[in-house]
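Tutorial, part two.
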Amino acid sequence: MFRITLISAQLRCLQATDAFGQGDMRWDRGNFTVTDCREDLDDELIYTFLSTRSYWAKGRPKDVVVKSLDHSLCFGLFQNEDQVGFGRVVTDRATFGYLADVFILEGYRGQGLGTWLVECMLSHPELTGLRRWMLATADAHQLYRQQGFAPLGKPEMLMERLTPEVYQRQG
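Running the prediction step on this input gives:
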């Protein structure tokens, strides 16, 4: 499977403690690593993928991407020193988590890395006691079913306020 340890200096981020008293986390599997260290993330790679190659964030401005990274618990998937995947959780770290912007670069798909990345995200010590997790996906239902996600049990309880053209209006 994989092991969980505090991060070492193998990537750029040294062991540190954040505002929640939690050290940076690291999961290893062969020559792949998942880390929650914000400083290790390649903002340009994440921005480029989300704004040009994803169906859900196409056109998202760079300043919005960076702001979303700075205000979420983020996870980078690396092969050695190269980032090959990403995901983030919007959370209060107490009751609720929203899985967002999960992706694996095209050349690395089909190896179970997306499943492993989501497993790492869900097993983070700051997130294991959450009562409710949510996400939105158009094409990865099977991946998330493996992690216990299911269609809404009571969809009448939830509402949304969606502004799909918000990024076009900002320009």
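Confidence is low (pLDDT under 50) at residues 1-21. In part three we will examine how such features are distributed along the chain.
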